[in-house]
Protein 1
Amino acid sequence: MAETFQTTSDIERLLAIAERLKAHLGEEAVEEVKTHNGEVTVTVRRQYLTEALRYLRDHEIFEMLVDATAVDYLPLRGEPRFEVVYHLLSLTHRLRLRIKVRVRSDDAWVPTVCFLYPSANPYEREIWDMFGIRIDGHPHLKRILTYDEFPGHPLRKDFPLFWQPGMPVEKPAEEFEEW
Amino acid sequence: MATVEWEQALMTINMGPQHPSTHGVLRLILTLEGETIVDAEPIIGYLHTAIEKEAEFKTYHKVITLNDRLDYVSGMTNNFAYCLAVEKLLGIEPPLRGQYLRVIVTELQRIASHLVFLGTMAFELGVMSAFFYCFREREKILDLFEMLCGARLTYSYIIVGGVRYDLPDGWVEKGREFLRDFPKAWQELNELISENPIWLSRTKGVGVLRKEDAIAWGVTGPSLRASGVPWDLRKTMPYSSYDHFDFEVVTAEEGDTYARYWVRMLEMMESVKIVRQAIENLPAGPVLADHPWATPPPKDLLDKDMEALIRHFLFYGRGYPVPPGEAYAAVESARGEVGFYIVSDGSEKPYRMHMRAPSFIHVHALPVAAKGHLLADLIAILASFDPVMGEVDR
């Protein structure tokens, strides 16, 4: 197990980075810093996301955004329904850090980070396509995996598994249990 | 006599989705000035199979069979990354022999995948015979896999807690035979291709991806190393006992199509080195961790022990619960960093499974490398990134 986990000193370094991030952005910007399974997750408020990633890229040298995705927590905990997850990788320090933003479904948007990390461009299009979270300021926000006329957003938890054209794209909440 | 003045205008043309050199159903909308590429826009999604959605409705064990269908040219690495992520959530460590077997199969898979890359790239650039040499060698690896797990393409050999089967009788000898013969075949390919003037003029200096661009675009794997970044997860963030083996991280400085080809060529030989070390130093012991519910019970206990039989039915029928939480685990596949991000809610099915696919990024980084080159070179550049559309579209 040890080989896939970041070591204790790595976690300490990541927590120190999280502290510096908090000091840079201010206390209210960071909702939560969590260590779990040897990974450090920092949850920031949406309005500070761009600044947080800019700080991490320029000052803590996280050069690469390896992955960006979202999770729909509707049946688990309700609102805020979505979490947008960014996985950062530092080639210099050999560290991985996860940044999260919580988004409510009635206000589902996040600012784009593709001007900081070009690799965010396709990932953000995928988030829009699969979850319907609008990416504010994205230069080319189009569906990427489904076709343009596709209704609904397939990876939302209320999207039926066996969907066919003509069917509603949302399942009522009381049917969640039997899935 | 009146002269005709040609207006210098940009032309938009469509390439794909059925173009034979696009490695699957990739469509590129190209903006050309004369024959020079000004811009390229990849249109993907033709192979979208919603595997991430489907995984939310299958138990953790059954999702393994979905994963190797994503990157169908190197299925082992997908199983590997997925199992590492689930093991992280469960807190299981596979026994050392299981870890070594994982290394053996993923390295053989890397050779097989690079052979497909080389064969198809050579085929597209007109070296048809290389295609047959490559697939002849790949066939030997697939035979080894078939002997090991009965499958040739979608293996599901690596499972949570270790690997499914131990080596069958005679496998080690066949493996040694392959390791003995492969360097000769490699040399044959090398002599056939690497010094060929046509090959050199089609690949040298074509499709240069600068170091900064490669990092900013999240390019990983051999394509990143060809741009001069010595980043290999096997060395820099070792997993599954990779730190026990002695091998080099192959890099090149140029970042062009030839560098991407050459890095993959040398990597094949490094993989041979790793497999040889792993086979010779293979530790004895079990290949699968013994976890009370997350690993299947030994087959020979089923007709003797009632508890084992119950465990067997629970494992395959209901599945096993995984503690709530989230985990991201990544391995170095033949194409780059394959990562799985799994969110568990404590039930038997993944709440969310996301795959970080290297080809997804490489396809979108393609315009950066292709800008300013001739249309005919696009084929070589695309082939040098070695995208597999199954994992692009997921």
Note: DSSP finds 15 helices and eight strands in chain B.
Protein 2
Amino acid sequence: MRYFAQRLARFFVVFFIVTFGLMILLRLGMNAPGDPARTMLGGTVTDEQIATANARYHLDDPLIMQYFWWLKGMVTLDMGTSVQQNIAVSSYIGSRVLVTLFLGLYSLALAIIIAIPVAVFQAYRRDTRRDKAISIVSFGLVSVPNVVMAVLMVLVFVRTLGWFPRTGEKIYPWDDPVEHFRNFALPVFALTLPVAAVFTRLLRGDMIRTLQADFITLASAKGVSVRRILWRHALRNSLFSVLTSIGLQLSGVVGGAIVVEQLFNMKGMGTLLVITILSKDLFVVQALAAIIVFVVVVVNLLVDLSYAAVDPRIRQMRSLG
Amino acid sequence: MSPTTQAASRDTDAPLLELTDVATHFRTPRGLVRAVDGVSFTLERGKSLGIVGESGSGKTILSRSIMGLLPTHGTVRSGSIRYAGREIGNLGRKEMRSVWGKEMAMIFQDPMTSLNPLMKIGDQIAEPLRIHLKMNKVDAWATARKLLQDVRIPEPDRRLHQYPHELSGGMRQRVMIAISMACGPTALFADEPTTALDVTVQAQILDLLAEQRRERNMSVVLVTHDLGVVAGHTDEIAVMYGGKLVEKASTRRLFAAMKMPYTEALLASIPKMSDASHTRLAVIPGRPPDLVNPTQGCRFAARCPYAQDRCRAEEPPLTSTADDPDHSYACWYPVGSPEYHETRARLASTTNTVEAA
Amino acid sequence: MSDTTSTGPRRTLRQRLHLPRLGVLFGTVWLGGLTILTLLANHVPAAVPFIRYYDTKVKVNGKVKKYGFGPGLDAWFGTGKSAEDIFARCIYGAKLTLLIGIGATIIGLVVGAVIGVLSGYFRGWTDRIAGITTDSLMSIPPLLLSLVLVLRLDDLKEQYSWMGWISRPWQLSLTLGLVSVAPFARIVRAQTMVLREREFVTAARSLGASRSRIIMRELMPNLVPAMVTVAFTGLGILIAAEAGLAFLGMGVEQPHTWGKMIDIARDDIEKAWWATAFPCLMLFLTVLSFNLLGDELARRFDIREAAV
């Protein structure tokens, strides 16, 4: 229980620090009064317009106060207004968030689904030619930058084979599952493979280490089958490194999603971010960044908690204090 | 031989375990390591055998060889291992799996690392029951509970749901014994079962093993470097050195009338309560033998105080005397022989001269 | 009865010549060759006559044609949107990519190492504060942070004239360097905590060495292997990051780095595939080389890397 509380506290602290830091970063250098408003509205603005904006968005208040206003807004899902488009932010980023969410979720899930059986196979058939071949491929995949991966996907699957469309349309699974699949398949694949390679390498290493432990030999000596030893005994004890890296990989996937969305012209958070950062639509940027950071920190929290779920020793150690 | 759960109903006439010229070599970059180099003996049903030797003598490898628990890469096995009349020396891991846990069981040295830290005790005991005896979970756990009682663990219900790290070292070793007994095997191999435990707990564990052996009519092979462990708990003792069996006798006979100088030295190196204080520890000089390039003659010759030229030139075969055919040894000039006494007298006089001078 | 022939594994030709593994060989050759070519092309063009100039238009039958040539003898990697030689551009672009990457790695490593050593050695509150800082930094996806930083620096440059020296390459180096501080700090901290417990540190302490002396004389030299290893792998990642930023339009204006080349040609990917494919290839092989070398170093120095 205490473990959980500690982790939760840390989650909040980090979230606040990061989002506040981001806000400061975005407002850096806008010291003259009226600057934020001027920047956001862009072009020529009258003093009147600035005053209105200031009043509406509390742009005059000290930064801390602005942060609190913003936080309050986020919690009530009022993410401010896109000053340029003059519509509520929350209304139109929803669909974008969803697209990127699908992208990220599919990629990570697929990566894990691929990595586990491959790594188990590699650990069992260690040092055989197949194991070595897979290791080489994994190493190569890890070295492929997201840009390159995406381009490769396009070159092979769109240009040469023509199986998939060049642009990822925003189609939801509940609208048309097949088209949804066709549009998301390539971007997801581009993101998944390098992450799957990382997971595979980590898991293989841990599995090999675990398989040398005494309790595995004992399990053998009990007459337990190879399959059961691999999946029931060894795997569970080898998840530590992979779990630890999920958070990091998620950060990478977010970055990758931005790039991939750009290449496939998808209407997700990534492309929106690029546009709004360039046009200095501050509220939108803050909202998007906050959502991303929130997801990342939550996932890290979940990973931390999962350690306790998997390993009873951690569960009990912490509760003792 | 159709396997049954009760060990008692087996054919009790034939020896349970017959080893003939068993050898296990490992291919390494340095060369061929002759870890076990031609060992032969038999073991009867329900008897306990102690295999004694220092590190590197091959005792652990021998027990693993009999079980078949060796790594597959670079291992060369030869010789015949017959278990209950059936040749198992050439069986692969797949075939052995039906034997492991069911007819032959093994417990290891370190109970902390031998149990799966993420699995409940109950599950770990129930596992072989469900695999070999096809029990369902409820029955298996009930049997596990009974097994915990057999090994004298208090509050078995609570313990079943606990994890290994919640138990003390002695209790974990008991759990290991429970796991090994689960399917009623006919032979148990105990590889240094007490080395990692406190002295007080050691005796309890050994007594427990002896009790189980009697109740189940099970053969026990106790592998250890500690003569004290085998002294009270075995029927026979086999001494190993340099991958070879150098002496084998009933326990009583071995301690009363040992033949090998090595055995004598082992015994002498145990500090005794009756010694005066500050008595120097007797050690066996020299280092363990090279298993890659063994010498031509007796492997112990380099460190044996009674070694003569013949010992270094020719390897002594395993023989036994007429009056005690069960006591075998491999020595040209065993303890009690005229040459032995001669050398001994000579050594004693030189020591005296040194002291006198 | 003794065996005279060795029963060990046969010594391969490679082992007998003491050649390094294939990967290391390739990595070294690739990086070495690339560095030489790009330095020469940028500074001593006469030495590499087979590399066309940056702006030369490769004419097809006397006329300037968009994507005139595919890969072939006329232009090894084909020509691009403005009839430029893609191979030549790739070589020119390499210099800045490498420089930015190296700059970022140095910044990140120096700052990260300081944080790492201090928090690893002193523990306590120093460690906790540093921990929260690095955790926070690592919670922001690197690309996101880089985007924001680069653009804000753009704005700040307009505001404060003293920041005028921060050219685009410097902006990128600083940004990427900052983003890489957290992972470097983590790794250095882990290594420090391991080394701290070793005997030579205890020995120095018992001799009365001051803390700063211990850090400088005992710890730092032993951290160098880890830092060098991580620098190589880090370089690979940072170069990929630079390409990503360039692809999104945040890169250097001139000369075009590989990322930007991919961006320019991406709409025509179906017709003129070579304009994207070859920069991608260059990028991949370069990152791969750094990873290969980093991996070999890790093997040599026996370092368990943090999950990268």
Note: The two ends of chain B are 71 Å apart (CA to CA).
